[in-house]
Amino acid sequence: MTVDFIYFDAGGGHRAAALALKAVIEEKSAGGLIDAEIRLVNLQVLLDPLDVFRKITGLRLEDIYNQMLAKGWTLGSAQGLVFMHAVIRLYHGPVTGLLEKHWQSTRPDLVVSLVPNFDRALYESLRSALPKVPFVTVLTDFADFPPHFWMEPKQQQYLVCGTQLAVEQARTMGYPDERIFRTSGMIIKPKFYQPVTVDRVAERQRLGLDATRPTGLVLFGGQGSKVMLEIAQNLPDTQLIFICGKNAKLADRLRKLPTSAPRFVEGFTQEVPYYMHLADFFIGKPGPGSISEAVAMKLPVIVERNAWTLPQERYNADWVREQNAGMVVKNFRGIREAVRELLASLDSYRGSVSKIQNRAVFEIPEILDRICQQHAQAIPNASHIRK
């Protein structure tokens, strides 16, 4: 059985989710039932021959998004989505035709999308080229941001949702319950479920940190963010670990800032669970991956929600409040007071976070298997679906 995972590199979270699911299925660490060849398909590469967004802006879609994140140009991003959807509608016919040819030549047995915005084109092209092949969309956000973001109304497909709000949104869009599957959260790397066995006291000391002092971990994705400098300047007496990703200039500036508390600055690393193990709380953007990784490591979070927050991530901050998983600030100018309040109630927040059990990356392979079986029963002559 051949399963295509559709992703793109806008922000990095979609590729990370696809890789995490692929690893779990191939290693069978979740006891999954699917014995399949997993193919990772970059949607941006498929659409490059059309050059849709480059014709209008001079940049590929994922490059526009990544530059926007790196430079902090997120104010007005909701209006930017309206423009993007208009371009997608304009090129819907050519995009669908290009995708049809791809499906006809590659002939997958199951297609799983982990990307927003292109659900209609992916679904319609697959139905036209391979009408018996099931199509599944796995939301990598806590909720949809309608219209035309993750969910299109009444498509004969399956949805995998990580929150009850997303389930209710799917029902509102006309999806029957048998096509909606609920997981316990967002997809994160299996590494975050593996125990970190190092001694916290010894490791903090090795990094030049005070072994007994409350410690925050500051992380803003693989490219870092200039807001980390603002956080550092507003928390001169708080012990912090900064992970700056590939932004070496940011890491250098952070190391040179005056501080009255010990700090450790790291660049790009694959050992995020290790550093989270050494911390007591998390400060970062309200991305679904960042929040879910911190919660998996039992860290209460501090995130911001304001006009600059990406529209699809605004509910994430609401979810933090709903779960009592940390604090939400209007902006990081208020980070000093937020840290003081969080530390004053740290045990309460830790208790709430410890109750959140997210096993989505292990649940989804079994869900995909159930979808294949359910689809095969609904279409008895769908011989391409193999148990």
Structure summary:
With 387 residues, the protein is α/β, with parallel strands linked by helices. It is built from 17 helices and 12 strands.
Explained architecture:
This protein is an alpha/beta fold. It has two domains: 207 residues, Rossmann fold (3-Layer(aba) Sandwich); 164 residues, Rossmann fold. Helix content is 45%, strand content 14%. The protein contains 17 helices and twelve strands. The strands form two sheets. Strands 2-1-3-4-5-6 form a six-stranded parallel sheet, sandwiched between helices. A six-stranded parallel sheet has the order 9-8-7-10-11-12, sandwiched between helices. α1 crosses α17. The longest helix is centred in the last third of the chain and has 19 residues. The protein is globular and about 65 Å long. The relative contact order is 0.13.
CATH architecture of the largest domain: 3-Layer(aba) Sandwich
- Structural class by sheet pairing and helices: alpha/beta
Query: Main beta sheet, described?
Result: 6 strands, parallel
Low-confidence segments: 383-387
Strand content: 5-15%
Give the CATH class of the largest domain. Alpha Beta
Q: So how many helices?
A: 17
Count of DSSP strands:
12
**Into which percent range does the helicity of residues fall?**
40-55%
Cα gyration radius (Å) = 22 Å
User: What's the rounded overall pLDDT mean?
Assistant: 89
Q: What strand order characterises the main sheet? A: 2-1-3-4-5-6
What is the distance, rounded to the nearest whole angstrom, between the alpha carbons of the first and last residues?
A: 9 Å
According to CATH, the fold-level topology of the largest domain is Rossmann fold
From the spread of the alpha carbons, the general shape counts as globular
The CATH homologous superfamily name of the largest domain equals Glycogen Phosphorylase B
